[in-house]
Amino acid sequence: MPQKPIVFDAPQPEPRARTVEALKAEILERLTYSVGKDPAVARPHDWLTATILAVRERVIDGWMESSRETWRTGNKRVYYLSLEFLIGRLMRDAFSNIGLMEPVRQALDGLNVDLKELMDLEPDAALGNGGLGRLAACFLESMSTIKIPAYGYGIRYAHGLFRQEMSEGWQVELPEEWLAHGNPWEFERRESSYEIGFGGHVEPVQEPDGSVRHEWHPSEHLNAVAFDTPIVGWRGARVNTLRLWSAQPIDPILLDKFNEGDHIGALAESAKAEAITRVLYPADATPAGQELRLRQEFFFSSASLQDIVRRHLQQFGDLGSLPDKVAIQLNDTHPAISIAEMMRILMDTHGLRWAEAWKLTKGVFSYTNHTLMPEALESWPVALLERLLPRHMQIIYAINAEVLTEARTVAGFNDAQIANVSLIDEGGQRRVRMGQLAFVGSHAINGVSALHTELMKKTVFANLNTLYPDRISNKTNGVTPRRWLLQCNPGLTRLITDRIGPAFQDDIERLADLEAHAEDPNFQAQFAKVKHANKQALAALIKERLNVTVSPDALFDVQIKRIHEYKRQLLNVIEAVAHYSAIRAHPERNWVPRVKVFAGKAAPSYWNAKLIIKLTNDIARVINNDPAVRGLLKVVFLPNYNVSLAETIIPAADLSEQISTAGMEASGTGNMKFALNGALTIGTLDGANVEMREAVGPENMFIFGLTAEEVAEKRSRSEVPRGAIDNSPALKEALEMISSGVFSPDDPNRYRELIGGLYDHDWFMVARDFDTYADAQRQVDTVWADRRRWNAMAIRNTAHMGWFSSDRTIAQYAAEIWNVPTSRGGA
Ligand code: 26V
């Protein structure tokens, strides 16, 4: 159906009033007329929905304006394709960004409703696993803030990341129900739906001019239906769209089958279609190899590209201008099949020739790599792709032929180099390497920290980097200071505003003005007071959730992130055991009271990660109940880590644990959030820690451990860790305690294998980094004892985190990859 032309001067309503009175009236109105509840009997969830609907209207005013402007100016749009968006709660974010937090609070007060209570009711949208998904969410907010016309494209999972509960210290996974009470933020766009195919065959068709066109005839079809959520930038600068696709059957019920009496069969098709967007894959430990995952990837890639091309043609009429008007960022390889899908759309649907289609494709796409772990790099069996996406497999072969010819003739590659850049992994079962596909189909490829980008050039993409030099660049990650400072830490925000004025709220690098106050005893006292209040709130939460009493005067030492061997929660836990032992052995010493806080989810199939959770809980039980410890050490594992929990824990942290094996954490973003909130980092020279050290100064951080180079060297020699253990009595004792069952009397062998691995290969260098880590922890104690010094360091951490704002990261993508202007200038 042809689209109607856009009428820019079409009538539009008056923007909504923003006064307390107007909000109050509107909330009542929404409660009555949209939720359908009498205020007399309305329940908290009804008030929540009504409040979001009322504020949403103020967001919509900006949304319409932003979208009209982009249509009117014809500015380039950025499309961020991501299988994950870990957005968390939206209410405080939206209210605060459009400046309605206080008016809404007062409006609700006038209705005898407590805003805080409503905020706690909002589900935490966990459509992501960890850092990669949260980065996508920070990026969306920053794109709105610095005024880039942008869409996030992803999947509207019916169930996000599982809910974690503890059963006798073991992780149990329960389904997550974020949509149970509906989702007042989203708009279903039935009219924006696209057909997605799978399977079938490809037919070559001879064209009159002698060329051959390919027609793909899928054997399965389903619909992708759009759900839009507005994403508002700071001070309402711009409102962009997060468009999430939901899978729906083309025929909800096969009526013939139903009438024949095959009721289950009649519904089976529809269940199969809907299965595609039912759940988020919880695996960030190994790539999910299953067919359903590939279906998810193609499903959302295809829907997004059809939408992008449709919008482009509607506005500009021709495809030649695609790279001038469209930039598509691939968040890791999950949407990499988009490269082949774009080629298919351009050639098979729109009749473009190969060379032109390939030029346009490379012109629009760019790709971000988020991990170097060989076991984490996605690849799909050729046989599976041939069956599920036969046309795409043909296109991938054709791309590969072109790349390999170039590699041989232009670059003069030898056989080993050819095998390395090939899109097809020929070792064993033939597989398509999605990283290589994403690389060759993109004009720009980036890593997420300086170190990670360097390692990318030296390892996975070494040969592709030789073949296509200058394509790889670095874009160090960042975090949005709105959510991760202004909203989650209002006390610190007020204090900073009182001291250096409010300018930092609009230009976060102005936080550097705090440097001048770092040694001011009065400011230090206020800074510490804010921290103390945040720690009291966390202590209350720990009491409520775990019934463990912790003192807010103790040092809060925090490690919260996905549980992974490379992130080395095990190193932290072993050090806790060694410390416990030392406290018992030397009660006379002046120990610094510490609370070790852990939180994080383990992939359900990742046994060692789950065992590390159990170990943490086992150790916590023993230490917390040992009177000889006299409360000098407490260990707590807070269940169900998510964005909202992070927002409570981070402002309360004194010490941030960023202790991954060097070379393995691509960037980390939690590290930035902690430092921004005045925590000191204990960490390795890994990921963005390296750049954080440059920003805050090495004297304001506790760096320890092997470097990435040393790790690589030890691994290449298969060096055994024996020496490290034999030479460290403290480590040796701690390991023996754990493996002999001191913390698991009910099952003394529970940790034998886990600890045995450290003696045997110690792939993650836990034993070899132990001593320097333990030393760094004692250094932490020494500085803590000199509280003036500690506070000065904490203030300096906050002062120098401005650069780690996702606004800066996004401005770099805009200038160096997307070629779009921003409110900070450029293009
Ligand atoms: C990591 C690993 C590591 C070891 C074994 C297998 C495996 C599989 C997957 C992953 C994570 C994949 C992608 C990811 O989430 N990367 C994260 O991206 C963040 C945003 O750029 C970054 O800050 C984290 O360091 C990085 O792990």
TrEMBL record:
Main EC class the enzyme belongs to: transferase
Any Pfam family matching the protein: Phosphorylase
Origin superkingdom: Bacteria
Reactions it catalyzes: [(1->4)-alpha-D-glucosyl](n) + phosphate = [(1->4)-alpha-D-glucosyl](n-1) + alpha-D-glucose 1-phosphate
Signal peptide, first to last residue: none
GO biological process, one term: glycogen catabolic process
Keyword field: Allosteric enzyme, Carbohydrate metabolism, Cytoplasm, Glycosyltransferase, Pyridoxal phosphate, Transferase
Matches recorded under PROSITE patterns: PHOSPHORYLASE (PS00102)
GO CC annotations, alphabetized: cytoplasm
Record's keyword annotation contains Disulfide bond: no
N6-(pyridoxal phosphate)lysine found at: K673
GO molecular function, one term: glycogen phosphorylase activity
Entry's EC annotation: 2.4.1.1
Names of required cofactors: pyridoxal 5'-phosphate
Compartments where found: Cytoplasm
Main subcellular localisation: cytoplasm
Family statement: Belongs to the glycogen phosphorylase family.
Function per UniProt: Phosphorylase is an important allosteric enzyme in carbohydrate metabolism. Enzymes from different sources differ in their regulatory mechanisms and in their natural substrates. However, all known phosphorylases share catalytic and structural properties. Allosteric enzyme that catalyzes the rate-limiting step in glycogen catabolism, the phosphorolytic cleavage of glycogen to produce glucose-1-phosphate, and plays a central role in maintaining cellular and organismal glucose homeostasis.
The protein's name in its UniProt record: Alpha-1,4 glucan phosphorylase
Organism: Arsenicitalea aurantiaca
